[in-house]
Amino acid sequence: MRTGPPEPAVRVSTLELFFDLVFVFTVTQLTGVLAAGLTVPGVLRVMLMLGVILWMYGGYAWLTNAAEHALGTVPLGLVRALAQLVLLVLVLGGLRLAELRSEKLTERTGTIADR
Predict the structure, then answer these.
(1) 85 CB contacts (<8 Å, ≥6 apart)?
(2) Does residue 6 form part of some domain?
(3) Residue 73 domain flag
(4) What is the domain count for the chain?
(5) First to last CA, the chain
(6) What percent of the chain has pLDDT over 70?
(7) Which tens digit of pLDDT belongs to each residue from 28-45?
(8) Which among 109, 35, 22, 90 has a CA at the least distance from the CA of 61?
(9) Looking at the domain assignment, is residue 2 inside a domain?
(10) Average pLDDT over residues 98-112
C-alpha cells in the first residue's frame, strides 16, 4: 500500500507511437519473407533480421525514455533513425521483389540444365 502522493501520469508522445507502428510494420514484412521462403536458410535469415530489428527497437525505446523531448536535436535524431528503419524495410521489400522476379523468370525460361 502506498502512503505517498500519487505519481503523475506519464503520457506517450506521438513520436513514440509512430516508432512502435513502424516496428510493427517491419515485423509484418518479415512474416511475408518467412512465408515466401520456408526453408532452413530462409528461417535463419529471418531470425537474423528479427534479432537486428529487436536490437534496434530496444535502443529506440531506451533513447525515447532517457532523452528529453524538449531538446530539438533528440526528435531530429529519432526521425533520422526512423528514416534508416524505413530504408531497411524498403530494402527488404526490394530483395523480396527481386526474388519473386527471379522465380518467375526461371519458371518461364527454365534452367540451363533443362536445355
Answers:
(1) 22, 23, 26, 56
(2) no
(3) yes
(4) 1
(5) 79
(6) 79
(7) 888 888 888 788 888 888
(8) 22
(9) no
(10) 72
